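Internal tracking record. Fields below are filled automatically when a chain is submitted to the structure queue. Please do not edit lines marked as system-generated. If the sequence contains nonstandard residues, flag them in the REMARKS field before resubmitting.
Queue: standard
Priority: normal
Entity type: single polypeptide chain
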Amino acid sequence: MKVETQKEQVVGSLPIKGGVYEITAKYYFDKAAEFPDIDIKMQFMNMWSWLNANKSRLKTKRGMNKFITGWLIRSREKNAPTGRKKIINCASGPYEIVGQDEGEIWS
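SYSTEM-GENERATED OUTPUT FOLLOWS
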């Protein structure tokens, strides 16, 4: 009796040392659920571009989950509001500088 296993649907791939790392639909949607505040599709495209531009830094199959998870964590941190506030005093009055890059000033 022959038992056939259903192969998971591959929705994308990333270059690795010696081949490609296939991204399955399950893995993709698991990451989307784990990082709901991130555009997962855009981040996978960014990873693909970075890996293709940095061939000497390609990952192994074993290291890809760590690479992907780390990339998504850093992406979330870059886009998260810091909640950091800084008060500056000047001749026209005190101002509160708000934002990650302290680029927006609110009076």
